[in-house]
Structures
1.
Amino acid sequence: MRRKLIVVSNRGPVSYGRGSDGSRTAKRGGGGLVTALRSLVQYHDVTWIASAITEEDRALAGEAVDETSRDGSPYRLRLVAHDRQAYDWYYNVVANPMLWFVQHSLWDLPYTPRVDAAFHHAWAEGYVAVNESFAATVDAELARTPDAAVFFHDYHLYLAPRMVRERRPDAALMHFVHVPWPQPDYWRVLPREARRAIHDGLMANDVVGLHTERWRRNFIYSVRELLGDDATAKTVTAPISVDSTEFVELARSEAVLSAEQEILTGRPEKLVVRVDRTDPSKNIVRGFRAFELYLDAHPDMHRRVGMLALLDPSRQEIPEYAEYLGAIQREARRVNDRFQQSGWRPIELEIADDFPKSVAAYKQFDVLLVNAIFDGMNLVAKEAPIVNERDGVVVLSENAGAHAELGEWALTVNPFDVDGQAAAIERALAMETGERHERLEAIRAHVREHDLSRWTDVLLAALDRVAAPTRS
């Protein structure tokens, strides 16, 4: 059944610019969120509300733009032009890094964060203000289509549902949290008013979706501890997935085949691959140290094994992220200086936004290293096995949401235990072909069965079960 949906996210599915001839250009958005929501556009009547990021986005703000997704499905796009300073406070002070670091348990608590007057100002004049801008735009859309359901996304928009609920008591509201949910004590890093407002904002929804039972339990516990409310009936576990058909098609594309040939030209006998953003939560530095320990223990594998690290530079305007990128580069250089021989470097580090090469690397891994400190899901662990051609083994952090689904067939690691990660790399590289094949095929079968359509169906069914009188 097609239904009217208002999708709300910070980043939209497309951004606009101007070409050299002065004509308007459109660049399709990437990332797991935009890709996942594409199925909503395909099967439902969607109006998508997102922040105006570029100058051309801002020129289009305030009007509805008729757009189409990659498969030709139509949708309406409404871009919100926030005050520039407010958006900077919202995004670069509160959402990233503060909320991201809280939800991924990244703060070094004896030293950071520093919640000072500047943060309080950024909260009130940035995060609250931008959420209010989103809420006002949602309210305007609901005035046009009052029977539409509103589908909020992620940590950027925790306050907007309460703001909409106050304007539209009978609106159908749903929020999906794409990041981990920590236990309540970690939320006490934030000032009381902020942590309460976040939980209260989410509780204004009819449904709150999270990737795993682990994150769902933590959310219920946090709401009980910080608000005194029971969130059990509002919550649903719905692990996000990928479009396996799309990845199979991508794997055969000219861009991916060209990138794969480049990898094949220089690849060693065995290849350990990691594909990540340069985000502290991805645990890249410890991954390099674990590979160093493996090389220490296995001199016979020197020149025969290598690690290909394809990293997308992330949020470099935020000091914590820029510093972590520097740490990544220093660690790779240190390991290479120690072990490299003529014609062989153990770690090939590439920092670029190059999705075709990432897919090519997916096809070629013997070991896929996903050792995240914490991850809401981690779609790399689902994407790569779909197209892999070498019976590759997935080494997977127990703190990645994907582990709840794939842990049975992956090699589980503690993200803080570099010795354990080195042992997992050793076991993966030594594993018999038959076992490798069975594990990979099991992951593929699970991802194909638990696809994006199932994710959206679970969430929309949960929303349908909520009657208007139960809304708060």
2.
Amino acid sequence: MNNGRSGNDSLLRTASRWLSGRRILPRVRKANRAAAVDINASRDAWGASPQWAKPAYGGYYATSVAIYAAIRLRTEALSRQRLLALQDDLPVPDHHPVQVLLDRANRWTTRGQLWTAIETNLCLWGSAFLALEPDDEGRMEIWVLRSDRMKVIPDRERHIRGYVYVGANGAVPYTADEIVWLRYYNPLDDFSGLSPIAPLRLSIDMGMDALKFNRSFYQNSARPDLILTTETNLSDQEVTAFYQRWESRYQGPANAHRPAIASFIKDVKPIGFSQREMEFVQGLRWSLEDVSRIYGVPLPLLSDYQRATFTNIKTAEQLFWRNTMIPEMRFLEEQLDHKLLHQLGYPQIRLRFETSNIEALRQDEDSLVNRQSMLLDRGVLTINEVRRAQNLPDVPWGDGPMER
């Protein structure tokens, strides 16, 4: 373990020195006045602490049914929506460099795979790192890097000096303008995202312990369902003879519910679940409910149909989109507008997810159209105002009140 850590420390030292010599941005002033006292020397050299992006967090995706189901629902919902590049509130042509990059991240990754990787990294580690690298022909590509292997190198003047990707066989340094860092806000660390699993891990561990307990119970438990007490001590031969007679008379479906007679049996004591065992069973449901709370996925969508009806499942789908996925899309749009487009050199472009094909929101869309039609009919809105709300171009005759 110490040798491995020393090797990683040496790699980080080398990468940090390389980044120190790369002055992409001029050093004109500190990022903020507090930066100088908030970054210590070791953190400046070694990168942000890995405590918020533990590799073990990724293991929950492969071992917890609830975690896997919640993240899969979020990634499938997000990957079905196309991210559009808009200029002057109108979609740019499909051949525009920004739209091409969004639709084809790189030669190996489709649009859906890109958003699946981004959302999975955010859901596991609270951070997603997108490397911007040109291909052999000079066209920019997006590569999603594993968040638990990235080190953020702070800087007293530029806030972030760069990044270092630490793999099994080496380290790869990136300058600040070569990485787009998406992260959930972490009030405890300026240079780490906050993983949703951080507050959830104890509950998930409890649920996984309950599953392991139940598995071990069925595999290894030698506890009988009944205890038969007698007034005399039986020899091994008498016990064996009793079981043979009992099984020959009462075993099998043809002998089900057949009356039993045992003259030497004094009492029968059934054995049920203990209080501790019942708590383990309840722990499974509590763990599922916590996953639902943290990831914003209603229980019926996690196949918990205990109190499900057609109406509340439909409501759950609407809540999932309104309260979880639409805010997540707005978060990604804002982050990419601020970081990706700025680094690509297209500050005039805005990114917006296409949401018109979301079935759960169509009722809201229909209500909006009806409301706009009513306001248009009463002269409150103009035709062009309604068209802009639908991302449509203005028409020459659309700025005045509609003629009756």
3.
Amino acid sequence: MKKMVEKAEEHTIISIHNHPNSTVPSLDDINTAWKKKYKYGIVVCHNGNIYKYKVLGEYDEPIVDAYLDRANKLIYNKDTVKDYVKQLSEIIFKLKENNVELEVLAWK
């Protein structure tokens, strides 16, 4: 598998893995996708959520990590957040401004 990834043409590999704690992609996921030039990554969670992420270019790690942390907290508490969709949309927009595209398919 490692040899295949190393030999693969850039932006042709799609990474799929699970997060047992049902969290959004981590900074490590983002860093790996950038380093290995993945087309995009998918995280499948035990609670039914699915996250698709793509690195569009260079990014500031602390900023991206902070937005991913905010997304995690927001999604975890979504049932108690009045303007959940608006807040999540803002975080997704800010991530994209920082060259990380995140798509959230949350289990209802």
4.
Amino acid sequence: MEKKKHILLVEDDKPLREALGKFLGQNDFQVTPSACLADAIRQLEERPFDLVLLDLTLPDGNGLDILERFSRQYPDRMVVLTGTGSIETAVLAMKKGAHDFLQKPVNPELLLITLRRVFQFAQARSDCLDLKKEIGTLGNFDKFTFNSSMMGEVIRLARHYAATTHTILISGETGTGKELMAQAIHACSQRKNQPLLSVNCASIPENLAESELFGYKKGAFTGAYADSPGKFILADHGTIFLDEIGELPANIQAKLLRVLENGEVTPLKSKNPVRVDIRVLAATNKELEEEVRQKRFRADLFYRIDELKIQIPPLRDRKTDIIPLAEHFLRIANLADSRRISGISAEAQRLLADYAWPGNVRELKNTIFKISASGHQSQIRPEHLPVKILQPGKNFSGDERELSLAEIEIAHIQRVLRQTAQNHTLAAEILGISRSSLYRKIVEWQKKKKNRKKISI
């Protein structure tokens, strides 16, 4: 049976403290109540808690003192309670380490949702830290920037596979980093001091595929003035990486299978096979099982290369990796272009995190590099981002139109309204304008775009 989560509830209002304690107890939480700053600090020093639910206005001091003192001990596990009119204080609390805040009077259902979200986030963070500890020194795997337990598990698995001698099939959408993964596997394998040869199977003309991969003898065809060993012989004792293996012609698939089965390569027009000792890494952005069903890929070859499999998830499925990757690419761009872009604003980060990234990590890298090359010298802000990110639901073709200032402003307002669940008071505070100004901007935009769907107000 799972142990109940233990919450320290710091609230000086006795009726509210008792009501919240009873409600949380009925929902399988263990609650320790505290009515003042001094008692809360004593409780935190005496025992560990799973979460701190903290009122900021206490009779003997400010709840911010607890945040400053215990934020490292309780990272992302403090939720503050704030009364109407103290939104600025709540925002300050989040900057000091609070994970979230709730306005009084507290909505019970929203409270439960918030607590569950905090525990889910804390668990994901813990899992990721555990994976990073387990991964330890990864050689070339340290080239991967990630914050998600999902990607951490992929790296952990790849590291174990690297130590074997088996063929590995790396699958994933275009731009997810399959070639980087192959390089890391080779660098951590027993063959790391031997050559790694990469072959893009999609780029080899069909009539040259056999000679390119397996070599040829002098006179094998017009222009063959000397023997050529081919990629497999050149990679002897090392590793060969066959990128986009699903694009190989059917006749080459059959020859490749024989090489993998027998460890022998026969150059074009040669009667003597050449023994090779090679580890094969293959990659594809196709569903090879479906290619087999459609008879576009040999079943026997598929089962031969599918000894071990690594599936790299798309960037949209690991959103917590987006901002660390963007900041990583920004550091590279700053060095390459001698820029001094200080970082990415909070709203720009939200836009980047919400975008689906169909081109995955490659698209994110190119986006950051383009922004850097455009000459911005401060923070990356929403107006610096491509229109496809500002308006992700639209289908763009050809040249992308730059948004007007009014369009950028209303897109920003819409996003803040969604994030605050249409709480106009909180949205206005975040936007730095009055509630009446917010309402006026919405009405003005609706008048201009009366044929479009109206914004919820």
